[in-house]
Amino acid sequence: MSRNLGWHIFRKDWRLMWPLAVATALIQVLVMAVIHHSEPFPMPESKSVVAALLTFGLAISMTLLIVLTVQQEAVPSVNQDWLTRPVVRLDLLIGKLLTIVLLVHGPIVVVDVLEGLAEGFPLGPVLHATLDSNFEIALCYSLPVMAVAAMTRSVVEAIIFGLVVLLIVVLFGSIVSTSTGGTGLKWIWRVVSHGEVLVVTLAALCWQYLRRSREATQQARALFAGGVVLFTLIPALPWGPAFSIQQAFAAKPQAGRQVRVTVELDRPLSAVDAAPELFTVSKSHSPPANRIRVAMPLQFLEVPAGVILHADRSTVRLIRGDGVVVYRGMAEAFDVPRNGLYWQALDLPEDVYSKLAEQSVRVELEYFASVLRGMPVSGQLGVNDARRLPGFGWCATRVDNKNATVEVGCRQIGALPFCVSMALRSSMDLRSPREKFFCELNYEPVPLRFSVDPIDHVEATLPLIDPDASPEVVIRVYEPVDHFFQEIVVPQFRLRDWFVGRP
Amino acid sequence: MVSSGAFSGRIGGSAYALIGANGAGKTTTIKVLMNLISPTQGTATVLGVDSQQLPPEVLAQIGYVSESQVLPGRLSVGEYIEYLRPFYPSWDRELESSIRSRLQLPPERKIGQLSHGMRLALGLTCALPYRPKLLILDEPFSGLDPLVREELMEGLLPLIGDLTLFVASQELEEIESVATHVGFMHAGKMLLEEPLDELSGRLREVRVTLEQPAVVPERMPKEWLQARAFGNVLTFVDSRFTDENLDERLRLVLGPVRQIDTQTLPLNDVFKTLARAARAGALP
Predict the structure, then answer these.
(1) CA distance A78 to chain B (A)
(2) Residue in chain A lying closest to B57 (CA)
(3) DSSP 8-state symbol, A306
(4) Around Cβ A278, how many Cβ atoms within 10 Å?
(5) Residues contacting residue A122 through CB under 8 Å, at least 6 positions apart
(6) A30 phi and psi angles, rounded to 5 deg
(7) Under a CB-based contact definition with an 8 Å cutoff, are residues A180 and A171 in contact?
(8) Chain A touched by B279 (CB under 8 Å)
(9) What ipTM does the predicted assembly reach?
(10) What is the pLDDT of residue B79?
(11) Beta-bridge partner residues of A379
């Protein structure tokens, strides 16, 4: 009994499942053939559609392969022959994991490595990125699917169970508000949620396989469902502790210390015209109905040169003369403009505004901000150029048919910097060019790429003003160096004086 | 899904026949024994181990064949046997060859293409070569042709050696020759359990020829089952039969008796008698 028969069980599963495993591998190859990039620009739309369809087919095929393999020895069954055989459950679990590793992930690894090598990346980083992305696929897909398959008797049962899980995620996800999602701190809940998925999935699998009690299935299902509910609650991680964690990882903890924020109440309201964004509908979300927008001129002082100052979160409280807090809300995240002047929009409920418009209220603002420092120029490319740039991988530029814009594309094995600026610098004009930012904020202290694609990419379009001036594309990387908190108190603020309209 | 009552199971080297009507709970009981389902209450012990905790070491000593057993249909017969071998340290390949040749299973045939009977034969082929201490058969004969049945009971089982057989079947003729113990289940309850020879000894058909036309007495001993009268003859099954003072006891109930004949019941008739009595709530 001491002999490990995991491999023996895997070989039996291979005998049974090889047609589906081969079909899955073939779809992998097809996906690679379609998405293979001959140059680092986005695929044409027609190709994208084919790639999306093939990827969908691949997901179905992988799911079937996992579910059918696991259910060759369905634990909840009452009739299957294997249940009365002296199969060591750990061997069975190992056998099924081997199937997932070798038949599901094996082809993905091979295809991804071939794709990375075909795009000219060195083997070491290709392997590293491929293993990273496969870990992500295993954690977010293969293992949860395996757990669902292990707790059900048939494909239909597995689909129903999977739909229930999806329903829980959607239902709770729509109720639970996320504090860190969409901010640079999102890596914290991603780390926590990945850890939770790993622990819950492994616990459910071990519970199901290693306990011989017939109640194990119900218990494993309850454990898994509880884990799913917990998963949906993780985005509600409190902001304060998350920001403290972020501060603990700051690369240069003092970099934002000298920044000060003042409210310039002597600035005429007419100056608000210089901030047209106040009058446009928010791009990131639609404000609730019946809101009145009040604008407050903030001046950020002593912002170090060459940095982006990003307010990750702003909160506002309006306090009446008698000390009662009459409004508590949040404002949108923003980047502080180069001149330091930022019109802070306060979108107040209409009834709050109408009651307080003529009164003098105390305003308390809190800012959780990050300093992103621009690194020295990271890469330069001519127009219609293609080369490998350190840290950016394979980059190329091309001018569009109308000679109006320059398209820039970079593909890198592993992670690209999360925040880069690109600018067109003319050889005739050596002043600092106007940078265009391409940032998906992510302040993770070490690269934790939560992606199923081992190749990262960035695409940009820059306006071409003077094609004859031998322009070149200048790429700069911005990295977070500090995270700080500031509170501003305006003792007396009359809302009516700063009314700008409806958002 | 409750099977209540108790049976010893400690009948090493013997054969236990679990009998009962359809729906009596025989298969449920066996599934509880094999930990395929959990008892709603109580516990079951197999080879001294709680059935819900049967470890691989104990399972390696149990053979189980059921007509509803799900086998991997896409493996061939040979592949499946080859797959099972390493799980059993005591697997005897010579015995396996012998069983395979006797049951004539085509090794290359996919299990999914086997007939019901051949599948049962495969189940037997996969349950015997490791010489189980306990062989549990749940309706093993349905679908097996008579030759294979005979081969199983008279040819194969003796090959295993010191084997305890636990069999639930409606094919009572087949198990009568080997059964040493009988358990009778009705509506999920074990109503009776004893050695077959004792049961045969005490359960007799009694045929009494009277001096006058026979009538089934309105009040008769509760041990008398299935009493019926025809002409001068009254026939019944005495469930507590004993020779002692038989004449006298019969005369007391029936009056003058001309002749008394008794005979043991075949297992099939035992079952029918017990089933009818149980259904009527008259099982003493």
Answers:
(1) 5
(2) A86
(3) T
(4) 17
(5) none
(6) -60, -45
(7) no
(8) no
(9) 0.84
(10) 95
(11) A475
